[in-house]
Task: inverse folding
């Protein structure tokens, strides 16, 4: 029930932002639609509602967003350099890294962040052993620990505080 | 002033979109192509959206542009991940100058 209420609030706010008109027709239809969606799908998205209560998670999320945008910008300049360089300086390969995140949301965010950061793209995920397979456009090290240190650790630290 | 900032954001976004498309043509195999296409095009599109938001402000259009940034940033990596995984599972080889393929080593039958 708690997860349904949390999901209702999120869907309703999203609806209001999409409309941006606050007359009663839109608000009432928003309530109806959000009720329906959260009844049908509420327990699929928010599985641990107690996580939403901790304010420090939101603060860490505020810290994570600029970190992510900065890494994303670096990634773009890096890839753009490799694309327009006449010699095409790439050395691709698929490496393995370890992660200690367990929650589904945390793993999703980690995989998405890896995809949008310099030269790496997550290919597959082994949830039970905490292993991510990553396509690396410029393989620096094939060793699992060093690859983990270079690719995962800068996000994992913050994401563990937000989602675990 | 804010108009010029919005224009600059849109110009940067267009530039990165163009680079992503060039990368799509120049890179040797599907995985490298996805790298170029996902990163550059996601950032380029987000930048264009943000430029639009700067130009129109907190109106109905501007808020929709901001929401689009969130959704594009959340969904583009997922589609790239699904494409690369499907490509690997259906047996598309890496580029012949690739260094290593740990995924093939761990799942040799697929």
Result:
């Amino acid at each position: 029930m708690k997860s349904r209420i949390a999901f209702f609030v999120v869907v309703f706010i999203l609806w209001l932002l999409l409309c941006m008109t606050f007359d009663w027709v839109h608000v009432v239809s928003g309530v109806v639609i959000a009720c329906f969606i959260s009844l049908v799908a509420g327990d699929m998205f928010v599985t641990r509602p107690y996580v939403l209560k901790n304010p420090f998670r939101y603060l860490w999320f505020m810290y994570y967003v600029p970190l992510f945008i900065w890494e994303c910008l670096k990634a773009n300049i890096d890839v753009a350099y490799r694309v327009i360089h006449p010699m095409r300086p790439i050395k691709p390969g698929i490496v393995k890294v370890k992660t200690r995140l367990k929650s589904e949301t945390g793993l999703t965010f980690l995989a998405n962040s890896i995809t949008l950061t310099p030269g790496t793209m997550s290919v597959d995920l082994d949830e039970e052993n905490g292993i991510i397979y990553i396509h690396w456009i410029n393989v620096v090290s094939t060793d699992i620990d060093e690859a983990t240190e270079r690719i995962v650790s800068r996000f994992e630290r913050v994401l563990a505080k937000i989602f675990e | 002033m804010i108009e010029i900032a919005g224009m600059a954001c849109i110009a940067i976004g267009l530039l990165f979109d163009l680079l992503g498309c060039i990368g799509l043509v120049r890179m040797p195999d599907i995985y490298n192509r996805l790298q170029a296409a996902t990163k550059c095009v996601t950032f380029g599109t987000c930048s264009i959206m943000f430029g639009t938001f700067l130009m129109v402000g907190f109106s109905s259009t501007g808020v929709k542009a901001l929401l689009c940034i969130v959704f594009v940033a959340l969904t583009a990596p997922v589609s790239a991940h699904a494409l690369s995984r499907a490509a690997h599972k259906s047996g598309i080889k890496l580029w012949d100058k690739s260094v290593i393929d740990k995924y093939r080593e761990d799942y040799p039958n697929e």
Summary: Residues 55-84 of chain A form the longest helix (30 residues). Residues 2-51 of chain A form one domain. The radius of gyration of chain A is 20 Å. Chain A touches chain B through 38 residues (CB under 8 Å).
